[in-house]
Amino acid sequence: MSYQVLARQYRPRNFRELVGQEHVARALIHGLDQGRLHHAYLFTGTRGVGKTTIARILATCLNCETGISSHPCGQCATCREIVEGRYVDLIEIDAASRTKVEDTREILDNVPYAPTRGRYKVYLIDEVHMLSTSSFNALLKTLEEPPPHVKFLLATTDPQKLPVTILSRCLQFALKPMTQDRIVAHLAQILDKEMIRHEEPALRLLARAAEGSMRDALSLSDQAIAYGHGQLQTADVAAMLGVLDRHRTLALLQAVADADASAAFAVVVSMAEQSLDWSTVLADVLDLLHQLSLAQLLPERAQDENIRDLAARWAAEELQLMYQIVLQGRRDLPFAYDARSGFEMTLLRMLAFRPLSMEPVDEGQRSTPSPRATSAQTGGGGAAQPTSSARAQDLAAPLAELPAPSVEVASPADVCTQWAQMIPRLKLDSPLLAVAMQSLLLSQAQGWLLQVPQAMSSFLTTEMQVALQEQLRRQRGGAGDLQIVYVDGLTSTPRKLQEDAQRAEQALRWQQIEADAMVRAFQEHFGAQVLRDGPRLDESGRA
User: Are 198 and 234 in contact (CB under 8 A)?
Assistant: First the structure.
């Protein structure tokens, strides 16, 4: 006898054998037991999730010689013939190959005739969305009011292409993709019956490659059994699927955790020898980073000792950053001129970057970060370096948080600083605020003298002058007049103070980058250069 593939040999023959799809099985079982039978059923879902199988089980339940039941006997001639695919009153139609309206009319011409042997004449139309518009129109009337001895079972992977007039005439059941755990359990059960040795990691690789399809998982299992000479070993399955072995993914992330570029690129060379798909490799890295993050927050779910050990070596912020880097790298991979170079650039980013909050500082002076230091998380070492937003707030603090200064100026050098400190408290609108930031206020005995650049003489209106005078009086708590003087070459203003602070901050950033051990390593090994004409700081201090 010729060999029958696993997907056909272990196709469920009743609802008890059905794997998954409990929500569909429950509705059909109750309808059969209560005699509430619809004339048209529509099963939708991705490939290999049981659409045709459930339709055949339903046809068996309707025509079993013991009567209509949700538990067909499986022994009568009708049940056996349906399983073998030769039952005369189950008409299976492939809509993908019979799309014309003439084919549909030929089918409908036989609908009025009674079934030959069974209780119902069942039309099972697979991939029904492939029918033409004319075919759908020809089917409408019969589908709405078929003869009592006819049942329509429709199956499709793309229900969006079905007209609403067809959808409204059917009971719709959306089948769900199989979970990996369910696929693994079912594969293990079948392989045990077949007495085939297997490893659970190998089954998980097959379940992952199946992408929710039980038929794909069984077909891949057949291929893997042949590849592995009658057994399923993890290494053989990984080689057959062209996926990265978990040990290599762990070794890659271990090298990144150690900031060991040599070890990381040694793993890349071994991957290249297998001609792996680099996008799939990045997907495997993403999956492992996800498991590491879960192992940190939910240690009880991490059963692999290697994952628990590696998760303990990373800070939570680092894992989140690594995940974003790999995710962005996989998204950008098609734009790289070479897939391997795109992967290597993603790996270099993982080695070069880490969250700012992980870098220690010493008394305000940033030190060179040690590779993957986690002292900020454990409490050892120096205090955590402030983030970019925190440093931006520090720059703005002299302008917003210090108390309002006295109107009397202590010295000429403090005039601009005190005016900059006063501006945030004046509650000026945007146009007047722009003038104030580029001007200089001097205190006088009976009021104030505002020096304004000559270029803004036409911009400062009378209404704006009155508004500024009222705000200054409110700050002083009394009377006072504002005098406006237009000058050229104003060298000290609040705006220039901000720009000087930003330049100092940027210089400090460049100094830190050039002193970084990783940057120096890139310069020594790869001839890298630090380009200062790159991103600039904006007003908030961000790049």
Answer: no
pLDDT score for 356: 63
pTM: 0.60
What is the band of 156 on the pLDDT scale with cuts at 50, 70, 90? very high
Calpha distance 342→332 (Å, rounded): 8
Task: Give whole-number Cα distances, 418 to 189, 398, 409, in Å.
Answer: 79, 9, 8
**Which pLDDT score is estimated for 369?**
40
Q: Which of 128, 130, 122 is closest to 155 using CA atoms?
A: 128
Placement of tokens 């270099």 in the chain: 348
Take residue 320 and report the two structure tokens written for it. Answer: 């989140």
Q: Which residue has the tokens 């060999």?
A: 3
Q: Are 409 and 384 in contact (CB under 8 A)?
A: no
The token pair that represents 400 in the structure block: 């917003």
pLDDT of residue 40: 92
| Radius of gyration, alpha carbons of the chain | 37
56's tokens: 């055949």
Least confident of 197-211, 234-248, 366-380: 366-380
Q: Could you tell me which residues come within 8 angstroms of residue 357 by beta carbon, excluding any fewer than 6 positions away?
A: 317, 376, 384, 385, 387
